[in-house]
Specification:
By secondary structure, the protein is α/β, with parallel strands linked by helices. It has 24 helices and 16 strands. Helix 2 (16-48) runs parallel beside helix 4 (85-113) and helix 16 (458-473) packs parallel to helix 18. It binds ligand C2E and calcium ion (2 copies).
Length: 656
């Protein structure tokens, strides 16, 4: 009971929001409070001016005015101030004390006037006190403690004083005011409780808003972060690139975009497991972050793709050097739990201004440079240049011409034999595409196949070529096989493979006579999907040849997982086979591997007699190359067959 009463009469300093709200609400009432106090006081001094001594009508009131004025001025200058919790509590305490002090002062002063006046003037004193105190209680509504203290200090003496005058009017008045005050205190309690509840609910609302904001910030952070490497993700990278392009253009500074693609990551993932694969990606992120001092901003764009923003010097030579440094860092071995994994990263760079002025352009150009780097200079950096722009335009023209082309009449096939060196008989023909465009003239297959891939029309091109190749095969003896190339896109397109299976079935050619050539890079790009399509082809009895073997980074474990029937060793190893010991040992390994897994091994690019001799010594039997025949028109394949059939077993002769 006592402690509750004490709580009611003290400031709730444990509730900072309430204290601040009280101070703010009260501050608004201060001028009104003093206005009322001073006007009422002036009125009382005027009615008593001649009746009471100057001490009571002049000096003491002047002192009270001075205090009031001082408080008002103080209020005026501090009305916009923000207070800490401690300051606010201190201010409330001093208001509390001042209220008690002024209440006692004004009350004592006004009661002391009572004995000097007549009945009217005495009534004025009673009216003054009752009226003023009720007004003040109203103004102190938000400061319950102060309002209660004032009530006790003023109304206690007031009721006793007038209740004991013996005058029934004053007794009635005292009683009346006491009752009204009780009612007012009741209202005050209710009001104060509601005020407290309002502040509490505001506080809850603010807390909830803050929590919502926090969650939304966290969400934003996560939406922009790659959860594995903690690097920014593609979304943030893109936004950051756009922002920095704008900034660079405004300030006239340089900027470049780099795109990194890891070479050989998938085999690592497969051989060591996803746990190590994840660690490797994290390590790649760390190594890239290590270049932050060079104004490099790295991000993970997805899978084994990373992006970099280079800020500052737009000098291609410097960027190239920095890019190569980054590639060298990525090439260092990755050691986890005593196991060593190796990957490399190719980097394509596009410079703001040189390569374009929009994020889209820079992405496109960096992607092109990356593509070239992967094709020709794996594990190094390549800066997009003006010559590349010419090449892109050229490609654009080719793509346009391809879209308008009539495949049926413009595309044709040439055939290059695969020769069995033991018998010198032709074991198969590889179909190679040719395109003769009316305006562009002949276009190299490497160029138009890539353009068809980019234009998204490779599927229908491959289907047309397959139809033509199957027709050609029908003119050869049954033991001569047909080899058809699939592009990277075809291998991972379920639809294209479905269509090809239909075309083969309709052709009447025995699927067992057919080989499909896929490159290891195509297979590695999306192993799961490629493997599934390859299995579907193999299930029909079609042979699967792994083309350009040795140029990619596929591990032997991958080769094992595919139903391969043929491995074609890339021409690159044959060129220097007579002189290069390393090429010889690589070819020897591949030949042995093929034998172990029951595959036929074919060497491509045989151009000289010396090469043939060297490869025969290594145990190679199937060969393809200009030495035997250049790719030829269908009519000529028949002629070659006529000649080759007459060749004596074991004797190698140049034909075609
Ligand atoms: P590829 O599949 O590796 O084809 C072998 C390429 O090596 C052919 O070039 C062929 O003419 C060439 N070649 C054969 N023997 C020798 C030789 O002794 N020395 C030299 N220097 N080259 C030799 P081609 O016809 O220009 O084709 C280039 C590439 O274009 C092909 O490489 C293949 O990847 C692609 N391609 C060709 N036709 C098709 C096709 O119908 N479909 C698809 N998807 N790609 C094709
Ligand atoms: Ca091929
Ligand atoms: Ca090849």
């Amino acid at each position: 009971m006592f402690s509750r009463a004490k709580a009611v009469l003290t400031i709730e300093s444990g509730n900072p929001e309430l204290v601040q709200a009280q101070l703010a609400a009260f501050t608004k009432q201060v001028p009104l409070l003093y206005f009322m106090l001073v006007t009422n006081t002036v009125a009382l001094t005027v009615t008593h001016f001649h009746a009471a001594p100057a001490l009571l009508t002049l000096y003491i009131p002047s002192m009270l005015y001075a205090v009031s004025l001082f408080r008002l001025v103080h209020w005026w200058f501090s009305r916009h101030r923000r207070y800490t919790h401690e300051e606010a509590t201190a201010r409330l305490r001093s208001t509390y004390r001042l209220t008690a002090l002024l209440g006692a002062g004004f009350c004592a002063w006004s009661l002391s006037l009572f004995s000097f006046g007549d009945a009217y003037q005495q009534s004025h004193v009673a009216f003054y006190i009752a009226n003023t105190v009720i007004g003040c209680i109203f103004c102190l509504m938000h400061l319950r403690a102060a309002a209660l203290a004032l009530t006790a200090i003023v109304l206690g003496p007031f009721t006793i004083f007038f209740g004991t005058t013996g005058n029934p009017v004053f007794t009635a008045l005292a009683l009346n005011v006491a009752l009204v005050t009780v009612a007012m205190i009741f209202i005050l309690f209710t009001y104060y409780r509601d005020f407290g509840a309002l502040i509490q609910s505001q506080k809850d609302l603010t807390e909830r808003q803050a929590e919502t904001q926090r969650l939304s910030d966290e969400n934003h952070r996560l939406a922009n972060l790659d959860s594995l490497t903690n690097l920014p993700n593609r979304r943030q990278f893109r936004a950051e690139l756009e922002r920095r392009i704008e900034e660079a253009e405004k300030n006239g500074t340089g900027l470049a975009l780099g795109l990194i693609d890891l070479d050989g990551f998938k085999p690592v993932n497969d051989a060591f497991g996803h746990g190590i694969g994840d660690k490797l990606l994290i390590e790649v992120g760390d190594r890239l972050t290590g270049f932050s001092g060079e104004h490099v901003f790295p991000a993970r764009l997805g899978g084994d793709e990373f992006g970099i923003i280079f800020e500052g010097s737009p000098c291609p030579v410097r960027l190239h050097a920095l890019g190569d440094e980054i590639c060298a860092a990525l090439q260092e071995p990755y050691v986890f739990n005593g196991q060593t994994a190796r990957v490399s990263g190719s980097l394509g760079i596009s410079i703001l201004g040189d390569a374009g002025t929009t994020a889209d352009r820079l992405f496109d150009r960096a992607d092109f440079a990356l593509y070239l780097a992967k094709q020709n200079f794996r594990g190094t950096a390549l800066v997009f240049s003006a010559e590349h722009e010419v090449e892109i335009n050229e490609q654009g023209r080719i793509q346009q011409a391809l879209r308008a082309a009539d495949f049926e009449s413009e595309m044709y096939l040439v055939f290059q034999p695969m020769v069995d060196a033991d018998t010198n008989g032709i074991s198969a023909y590889e179909a190679l595409a040719r395109w003769e465009n009316p305006t562009l003239g002949p276009v190299a297959p490497g160029t138009f196949i890539r353009a068809a891939e980019r234009a998204g029309i490779i599927g229908s091109l491959t289907e047309t070529l397959m139809r033509k190749a199957l027709v050609a095969a029908q003119s050869w003896p049954d033991h001569v096989r047909l080899s058809v190339n699939l592009s990277t896109r075809d291998v991972v397109s379920t639809k294209t493979v479905d269509n090809l299976l239909d075309i083969i079935a309709e052709s009447g050619v025995d699927p067992a006579r057919l080989d499909i050539e896929v490159t290891e890079t195509a297979v590695m790009r999306n192993f799961a999907l490629a493997a599934e399509n390859i299995r579907r082809l193999a299930a029909r009895g079609i042979g699967i040849a792994l083309d350009d073997f040795g140029t990619g980074h596929s591990s032997l474990s991958y080769v094992h997982k595919l139903p391969l029937t043929k491995i074609k060793i890339d021409r690159g190893f044959i060129v220097d086979i007579a002189t290069n010991e390393l090429s010889r040992s690589i070819v020897k390994t591949i030949v042995d591997l093929s034998r172990n897994i029951g595959c036929v091994c074919v060497v491509e690019g045989m151009e000289t007699h010396e090469q043939v001799v060297a490869l025969r010594a290594l145990g190679c039997r199937m060969m393809q190359g200009y030495y035997f025949a250049r790719p030829q028109r269908l009519e000529d394949t028949l002629a070659y067959r006529a000649v080759s059939d007459t060749i004596v077993n074991g004797l190698i002769r140049k034909t075609g």
